[in-house]
Each structure stands twice: as structure tokens, then as C-alpha cells.
Inverse folding.
């Protein structure tokens, strides 16, 4: 069964928390999407998995809502004083996400995570070229307009782990 294979892969890779919800319960918020449009992270128009290149809010919603089930994953990371470990922690989380993708490569799933697609060293959007791997594109949860903060709180998952720890969220859809 696909669900069991996904759960086994999640446990093997070593995520700290996960919750399964119907994909129809994913919370999208215009304010989150607008934050991307304001280019708060610097990826706006620079990555095919981020706005505006990833589509408008309705296109992003449709991409996720074509699935029936969503498993929200969390890895709690220590960021240290003044977030000095933010970049290192992000890279560690992206590595875990790659491990999960490797385990589920042949399965009919979509995996999304924090930030824009990192499949290529530099996204071809920056040079105006077509995406090199459109079928493998890695979509951003926030860039798609998902309100991870509200969803994590609603599900009782750790967003602020205290003692300089924070949850990094990802999602497997099937």
C-alpha cells in the first residue's frame, strides 16, 4: 500500500513529526502568497517553483488539490543565537527531503518543501531558459500560498520548538 511505503520512508529518513490530512484540508492564504509577491526571500521571478513563474494562487492550489491525501512532515532544527545555523539547518533539511524523494522516486507522489526548487545549482529562470527538469520541479509550500503556521498549530505540530529550535515543514501528497 502506498501510504505504508510513504510512512516507512518518512520514519527511515528521520523526520520528527508527521500528520496526515485530506488534501482538501490544506490551508491556503492570500497573505502568504502576497508575502512571496513582495519578494521577502528574493526568489520572486527567479525560480520556476516560486511566484509568478509557478502560477497564480488558483494554479498553485490546483496543483496540490489534485491529490487526495497530504502528509505534513516536520524536522525540528536548532538555529542557535541570531539564527546563525539557519543556512546550515536549511541545507540539512533539504538533504533529508532529497533522501525522501529518492525512497519514493517511483511512486505517484508530489513532495514539496521550504523555499524554492533546488534541483539545479542555478535555476534556469534566472537566465530566461526553460526549466531543465519540469517534471521533477520542487514546489515551495509557502510559495504556493500554504499557511504552514496555521496548519501546524491546528494539527498540534511543533513550529516554534523553544530553546532556539524551529520546525521545518514539508509535505508528501498522494
Amino acid at each position: 500500500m502506498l501510504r505504508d511505503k510513504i510512512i516507512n520512508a518518512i520514519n527511515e529518513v528521520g523526520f520528527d513529526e508527521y500528520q496526515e490530512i485530506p488534501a482538501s484540508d490544506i490551508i491556503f492564504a492570500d497573505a502568504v502568497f502576497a508575502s512571496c509577491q513582495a519578494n521577502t526571500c528574493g526568489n520572486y521571478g527567479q525560480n520556476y517553483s516560486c511566484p509568478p513563474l509557478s502560477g497564480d494562487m488558483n494554479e498553485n492550489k490546483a496543483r496540490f488539490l489534485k491529490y487526495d491525501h497530504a502528509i505534513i512532515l516536520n524536522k525540528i532544527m536548532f538555529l542557535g543565537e541570531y539564527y546563525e545555523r539557519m543556512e546550515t539547518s536549511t541545507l540539512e533539511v533539504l538533504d533529508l527531503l532529497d533522501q525522501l524523494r529518492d525512497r519514493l522516486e517511483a511512486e505517484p507522489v508530489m513532495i514539496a518543501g521550504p523555499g524554492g526548487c533546488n534541483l539545479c545549482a542555478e535555476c534556469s529562470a534566472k537566465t530566461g531558459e526553460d526549466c531543465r527538469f519540469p517534471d521533477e520541479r520542487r514546489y515551495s509550500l509557502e510559495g504556493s500560498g500554504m499557511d504552514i503556521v496555521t496548519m501546524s498549530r491546528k494539527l498540534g505540530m511543533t513550529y516554534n520548538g523553544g530553546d532556539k529550535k524551529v520546525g521545518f515543514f514539508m509535505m508528501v501528497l498522494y
